[in-house]
Task: structure prediction
Amino acid sequence: MIETEFMIKTEDLHKRFKNVKAVQGVNLNVKKGDVYGFLGPNGAGKTTTIKMILGLTHPDSGNVFIKGKNIAEYGVDLRASIGYLPERAQLYKNLTAIQTLNFFAELRKVDKKECDELLSKVGLTKWRDAKVGTFSKGMVQLLGIGQALLGDPELLILDEPTSGLDPRWSRVLKDIILEKNSKGTTVFFSSHLLFEVQELCKRVAILNKGQLIIEDTVDKISEGVYLKPQLILRIQGDTQAAVNILRGGGFDCQLVGNQLKVPVESDQKIKVLNLLQENGVVIEDFRTEEPSLEAAFLQYIGDEASVGGDINEA
Result:
């Protein structure tokens, strides 16, 4: 047993596939009630870690605890309280949507009365009796989300949950996550969409080359890279001339489209505005953009800017 304040706790997880060190000494601490984001570039080891958390893949060394119990010893009982959406949901194509949820309800010993309600929640009532083999990728994803919600699990583990969803249904899924979390459900999800993690998560872990780079709150991770806020300006007239004025004044200015982007400390903003006005530049609009999780992420992993599902992870 281990501290029960944690819904998920991993201790020094290691996993190797042939000559590839997929996961190297990963320690995660997911408190009960967290919405926890799991980030990393392609091949970082995210899916392998998730499968070890679920007890679907055994670590070469290390331990996973769910609600204080070791998944290696209590896997069957613990998985009964987990709703899981894999990165690529594999559902029987010859079953209809309602038959699919009824099948999973039987496996989990859940009342089948939930199934129609969940089809409505994920927008598939119209296709209740249509076969999964006729579904688009997004519809399969929505049905997979529905099965993960069966039985109102204490813990949701979602691997790239918005993959294949259009913006409207991505928003619906976010609302579902927030609703479940408000009622006490712990949510652990991986995503390649950093703005989603920044919007939804309380805490974040960044994995790179199988190693945990950092685990902390979103705010502290963003602050920790010491990136300056950016002053975003839209001006009238010759934008390149304005860039030259600011660079001549010692500011690192970039022209992006028709906007000027100037990294500045808070006490320098007025200096930028005054410098432009003193040189006859008319400012139409300006705003401040705080450092984002995306900027922090890119700084932590260097040039490996591609974020997504893991490669060749079973």
Notes: Residues 304-314 have pLDDT under 50 and may be disordered. The domain at 228-290 is CATH 3.30.70.120 (Alpha-Beta Plaits). DSSP finds eleven helices and 15 strands in the chain. The first helix runs from residue 46 to 54.
